[in-house]
Amino acid sequence: MAGVVDLFQSVVGTNPVAMGLAGGLVIAGLNLFGASLVLVWRNPSERALDGALGFAAGVMLAAAFTSLIIPGIDDYAGGDPVPVLAGVALGVLFLDQADGLVPHAHYLLTGERRADAANPGDSVGIDSERLAPVVLFILAITLHNMPEGLAVGVAFGAVANASDPAAVEAAMGQAISLMLAIGIQNVPEGLAVSVAAINAGLDRRFYAVVAGVRAGVVEIPLALLGAVAVTLVEPLLPYAMGFAAGAMLFVISDEIVPETHVRGNERIATLGTMLGVIVMLYLDVSLG
């Protein structure tokens, strides 16, 4: 699939920052496409959504290792795992702290807040107060998509730090495979959040537009920021790759997998995850 790399370079050029921006546009566009599917697929079943989200988790899981952690250690940290693993820990810590600022996905997807020590037995429907839950919904999904945009930007920024033509080609392949993988998993994710917003009482067309804007506002600048940062500050690259990977792994473990296993669809979600891993590994080998 070297032709894919050549095509991308012929359209975008070889500037890592421009490639990071293009990568952000691609994943944001696929997110918008997924969100817009609700216009034609009006009532996807919970089983289908759980399988699709499982697929997204599988893609992100494989991508975190094949396109971020392993290249970060082998290619950009001289075989020293410490910078990348430190970045992983920082990414997990950041998402862990930031996640407490917004409602968890189970509240947004089911319309109920699970009981806790401060609010025993509390249950609040999303449609009880329309504006605030919508704002919180967009904030939560925005937070969880940040690592994806950052990961794409960091991967393209790594091209600038490649030492020879062969390394440049390998870095390009890894970056494009990561971009395609995250873009592909953005399709079911965009659909899922659109369905959740419709369950909150929002109009289909309205939320499809909102989801697209949200993706554009977050994933594009984060991809650009990641590319610029690692281009200007080369020693930052292994830490940045680890940070993006850690944040993605946190989202998978803390949000996606638990949510796909609460409605009796564990098997279809697991099969979706395995399919996602296979797709990402195929892209990585074909392009890398």
Tell me about this structure.
The protein has ten helices and no strands. It has helices at 2-12, 16-36, 46-76, 82-99, 105-110, 131-157, 165-199, 204-232, 237-260, 266-287. Helix 2 (16-36) packs antiparallel against helix 6, helix 3 packs antiparallel against helix 9 (237-260) and helix 6 (131-157) packs antiparallel against helix 7 (165-199). It is globular, with a radius of gyration of 19 Å. It starts with a helix and ends with a helix. The relative contact order is 0.24.
Q: Total strand count, please?
A: 0
Task: Determine the structural class based on helices, strands and strand pairing.
Answer: mainly alpha
Helix content: over 70%
Look at the structure and give the mean pLDDT: 79
SSE string, helices as H and strands as E: HHHHHHHHHH
The Rg value, from CA coordinates, equals 19 Å
The end-to-end span amounts to 9 Å
Give the number of domains: 1
Low-confidence stretches: 108-129
Number of helices: 10
Report the β-strand fraction as a percent range: under 5%
Largest sheet: none
Shape: globular
Q: Notable features of this structure?
A:
288 residues; mainly alpha; 10 helices; 78% helix
Question: Mind sketching the topology for me?
Answer:
Elements: H1 2-12, H2 16-36, H3 46-76, H4 82-99, H5 105-110, H6 131-157, H7 165-199, H8 204-232, H9 237-260, H10 266-287
